[in-house]
């Protein structure tokens, strides 16, 4: 089918509605973008989305700022799972820091809730078999190099397992991570030797100015051998080369026999970039970074504090209730 992209523009008050037509592998879809006089925008689909898996970031996406999930969001995602859609938590958190939210959704015992993507895509676990089915680790020598560079700047590094944050010494930034994640902290002697065991990721916390300077140096020194990004302004993360949420989602979708055009993802920050790039129905939070909103196919109409994910899924994914 030959399709010419069209851009009919309708003026009304101070708003302009622009229809963009995108040609995918099998069909043509339309997205509406509303531009206000302030040039803010919301990208929304014009028809129901056909998806079989929804990967959802947690912090600042699914979770409210008080780290809660509303009853309304629980209800909507349970309806999506009942419709046969995989609901996959996809977070920088470890398994144990994700599980309380999956239990809140009451989906862990279902086929549609059995998988979680943890540590920003370095790990995928099957909760039914209680095992990790996909795992990546950073080259140990890179972790040591990053640790030394950070230490020269007076910054401390962290690595994780499912339940614990390991640090060379206690510090205020790790205490913030403990509070956010719910994990315990363990001060580890001989930290460089401990790093040689290999770990899925490293986090270096600090004030945003320090983080930007450190990120620049690390990119120059080891950026061609690993993935480096900020998940929050005060968290710099180091992942294995060519590793991320998008790569993990692609691997899981392939394992489940789900084609790319039936994948969907919600995110807000730079650690979501790879899955926003991969998912056919990528959706950025309206409270998310502008770069992620520009990159995503859609943008939610409501923030994480307003059940933005659930409102979008109910309106554009779930069938109309009879």
Short description:
With 322 residues, the protein is of the alpha/beta class. It contains eleven helices and 18 strands. Helix 4 crosses helix 7.
**Using only CA atoms, what is the Rg?**
20 Å
Number of strands: 18
Principal-axis shape: globular
The H-and-E topology, N to C, reads as EEEEEHHEHEEEHEEHEHEHEEHEHEHEH
> Helicity, in percent?
25-40%
Q: Give a short account of the largest sheet.
A: 8 strands, mixed
Number of helices: 11
Label the structural class.
alpha/beta
User: Span between N and C termini?
Assistant: 34 Å
Unreliable parts = 1-30, 33-39
As a percent range, the share of strand residues is: 25-35%
Q: What is the residue-mean pLDDT, rounded to a whole number?
A: 87
Kindly report the spatial arrangement of strands forming the biggest sheet: 9-8-7-6-5-16-17-18
Report on this model:
- By secondary structure, the chain is an alpha/beta fold.
- It has 11 helices and 18 strands.
- It is globular, with a radius of gyration of 20 Å.
- The two termini are 34 Å apart.
